[in-house]
Amino acid sequence: MRILKIWLVSLLTSLCSFVVPAQAADYTQGVSVDGTTATLWFQSSVNTSWVDAHYQVNGGGQQNVRMNAAGAAGRFEHRVTVKAGDSLGYFFTYNNGNPAYDTPRFTHTVGQGSTPPPPDGGTGAMSVQLVNGTNGQHADSQIYWAIIGYHPVTRVLSYVDRSGRLVPASVGDNDAPNRLVKNGQNYANYFYRLSEAGTVPLPQIDSGRMFISIGTPMYIKINQAGDGRLGFAGPDLGNPTDPNQDVYFEWVEFTLDRYGYHGNTTRVDQFGFPLRTRLIGRDGYDRTLGETASRAQIFANFEAQMPAEFRPLVSRPWRIVAPGKGPFGPGRAQSRYFDGYVDQVWRHYSQQDLVFTAEAGTFRGRVIGNDFVFSKDGGPANLYIRGKPTTQAILEGSGNLATGNPQELVVQAQITAAFNRHLLMSVDPARWSDAAAYYPQGPANYYAKFWHDHSIDGLAYGFCYDDVRGHSSLQEHPNPQKLIVTVGW
Description:
Blueprint: E1 20-21, E2 27-34, E3 37-44, E4 51-57, E5 63-66, E6 68-69, E7 75-81, E8 87-95, E9 100-102, E10 106-109, E11 113-115, E12 126-133, E13 143-150, E14 157-160, E15 166-168, E16 180-182, E17 185-187, E18 192-193, E19 199-202, E20 205-214, E21 221-224, E22 230-233, E23 248-257, E24 260-265, E25 270-271, E26 275-281, E27 286-290, H1 295-305, E28 314-315, E29 319-321, H2 339-348, E30 354-358, E31 361-368, E32 371-376, E33 381-385, H3 391-396, H4 406-420, H5 446-453, E34 475-477, E35 480-488
Parallel strand pairs: 1-9, 12-35
Antiparallel strand pairs: 2-3, 3-7, 4-5, 4-8, 6-7, 8-9, 8-10, 10-11, 12-19, 13-14, 13-18, 13-20, 14-15, 16-17, 20-23, 21-22, 23-24, 24-34, 25-29, 26-27, 26-35, 28-29, 30-31, 31-32, 32-33
């Protein structure tokens, strides 16, 4: 999705397809320390051309970087500044040909060495409670939930049963006695009714999704790759024959690990019905995010407040779809929506520099030829957006806005957010963190703006890089006690 600081989701998300677990035989890894420099290293024994490191120092914010190829074929490294006693938590994502794989999580304490990944919580690291907030429109017996994700140690695709156990998934689940059947196809059934189980202990789980539906369970197929690894096919709103097209559904995406809970609701793909998530910590932390209006009011507000180009995103009675899933998709009526703005931006910044500061540093860019070329912190101009982005690339953070090394990805995320929020040429980059300056005029992603206007504290995931400068619905806490998910209508 993306994005849980890519704790997921990825997610993303919605935004995302799940990365499958790694085979231990594919690689060796470790941490080498020299003074105040720790080198994360990864040695591949398969067809690997890139490796991403995801790491935290002392449980702080997760960093996601593309590692540098180093020396021997298949070896990749990344250096981190540390001191004695620091704890590094980390895992890797790598390719073996086309597929991408996640390793388990590892830890290394500077001066003590590495430890294996933590075990799952078993009896529950926290609890999740589902609340019927439909105001009598739907009985508890009509509300369904399922939790699917990856075991944090084995990386096996699993589901959470109503007692809170993490149970390995199987292709055979598609044909189990309790299977779901639609249009002659069989689907795994990991769903429970709210009337059967309203609160469940939640063990540690990676790349988790809590799917919620009303009226019927969702139709999810368990698939097996050629190497035997499992994944699942969730709802695909871009496929008109997807069995979930006529199902009311939502989801919460999250990871629960030794560093706590990291999760969010998402509007990156669609709105099915209102959701609120209340995260409670054992230290008294208590925060709620999401929507408070009724479903009918949200539909009415969307149709009344949206510019004409965005009104067809309403797909009654089922949902409001994201622009890229509707008329802004390739070859459709609004497929060139941002093109004129992109042309203006490219002309403008061929004559003057764009300078902005983000968490990763200060970037200076200028359009040279057809490419937007950036430098970081006064260094060489070697960070690229190659060519003009399409409307779809802007709305979905894809194509040439999601390509390259880690520093290029930082630039591309910032520029994607600036296009969606119509900041380029219109708003001084010094105000790019100020939500009051967003969406001053069109073209802009008014779909995303709507969710910020109609969400608690103005926080929402309206597009995949809505976490840029901290405006997404991400909730995190290092010592969570409970997540309360309220289903609205």
